[in-house]
Write a structure and sequence with these properties.
This protein is α/β, with parallel strands linked by helices. The protein is built from 9 helices and 7 strands. It has a 7-stranded mixed beta sheet with strand order 1-7-6-2-5-3-4, covered by helices on one side. Strand 3, helix 5 and strand 4 form a beta-alpha-beta unit. Helix 2 runs antiparallel to helix 3 and helix 6 packs across helix 7. The longest helix has 49 residues. The radius of gyration is 26 Å and the shape is elongated.
Amino acid sequence: GKIRRAAARDAYLGGAHGPRAWKDAIAFGASLAAGRLRRMAKRAGGAAYGAWMWIVTLAALPPALAVSLWPRPQGRWRALRALARHVLRAARMPLAVEGIERIPASGPVVIVANHASYLDGPLLFALLRRRVRFVAKRELAASALLRCLLRAAGVAFVERFDAGQGAQDTQELIARLGAGEALVFFPEGTFTRAPGLAPFHMGAFVAAARSGAPVVPVALRGMRSILREGQWSPRRGAVRVEVGGALAASGDDWAAAVRLRDAARAALLRGCGEPDLGG
């Protein structure tokens, strides 16, 4: 009435306040109720999906713990990967994967991926076709349950805050590459709730430059909206995984590692669809 006071006055004096006004009011109320019902249905569907994912994950936990006791590392890895693929199929999320064949089937390789969600590691674990060793921050080993599962999956823990221990860890990773292993790094080190590609740690690129191993960037798009930092109920969403071409270092010194980092960062920025927070 206040917004269009003159028009409301003219309508009232013209007799437009009869049955038509009631019909308009009923239609307006029905549209409001329909919108609220749609929002409630969407929230209920989201809650049901989150509960389903927790049921699937908790159901896979006992066999995963049993598998972690197997003596043969190759058998443990295959069984855990089968469980991860089962959880991924149960998630029923739209998933597009491009260029997975670009990852060498054998020989040393450093795989670097952007980090946006708690589910980045399990997703790559389920998708990668060859046995890989994930490199993770040592803080994850503080939980006995998580430490047991990660060690069974072949995770290598590295120190982020002690420079001396970090250098020793890097030497061990270089030795693993020299033995022909495939290492997976999240060079951002961690992830946050806000979107954006954070600055990179240099460990992956120093190890690649000194060992001569190629670097393969893997861009993950859509993972942050499914399960971001501080969120414990997964949401259904579309995910795209884009594997870039292999990058080779131009030398084995620090400058060569920096150039390798910049090339990998450019590839991940093109594929992840998030802003550059590296300054």
